[in-house]
Write a structure and sequence with these properties.
By secondary structure, the protein is α+β, with helices and mostly antiparallel strands. It has a single domain, classed as Metalloproteases ("zincins"), catalytic domain (Zincin-like). Helix content is 49%, strand content 13%. The strands form 2 sheets. The chain has a 3-stranded mixed β-sheet with strand order 3-5-4, with helices on one face. The protein is elongated, with a radius of gyration of 23 Å.
């Protein structure tokens, strides 16, 4: 049984569905990408916080907010306000790459650039950063991870 929804404007009764067609209003369906993001977002948050806490025992940097996002182009970012952002897709990377991304963004809290000082900071806990950086680029170019 279908219940008809009507709207009265003055003396005119308008069917809800006719009004929706007139204004071309459509219900948005959640895409499978959004469902995937919502399914794994909190797992990614847990992973990121655990690894941030682990590596920050060494660095001792202060940061504000940590956000897990459904980003298309980058694995992580750090703002001048000391907010850290990570793609939820970090969850699906090998552990070494996860750690590299997390340390990379953590070190941006001290150096908001890619200077030699920045890479020296990264190297303190991830001595194979150059190899891992190359591996990550290969994954991105193959189109397997961020699409």
């Amino acid at each position: 049984m279908r219940v008809e929804m009507t709207l009265q404007i003055g003396s005119v009764l308008i069917n809800k569905y006719s009004l929706m067609r007139f204004f071309k209003v459509r219900k948005r369906r959640r895409s499978s990408v959004t469902k995937h993001y919502l399914t794994y977002k909190e797992q990614a948050r847990t992973l990121v916080h655990e690894r941030l806490n682990h590596y920050n025992e060494h660095y001792g940097f202060a940061y504000n907010r940590v956000a897990i996002r459904n980003q298309r182009r980058c694995w992580g970012s750090c703002t001048s306000l000391k907010n850290l952002n990570f793609s939820y897709k970090i969850l699906f990377l090998p552990t070494e790459l996860q750690d590299y991304i997390i340390v990379h963004e953590l070190c941006h809290l001290e150096q908001l650039n890619h200077s030699e000082n920045f890479w020296n900071l990264v190297e303190q806990t991830i001595p194979t950063w150059l190899e891992l950086k190359s591996d990550l680029r290969l994954l991105e170019r193959s189109g397997q991870m961020l699409s």
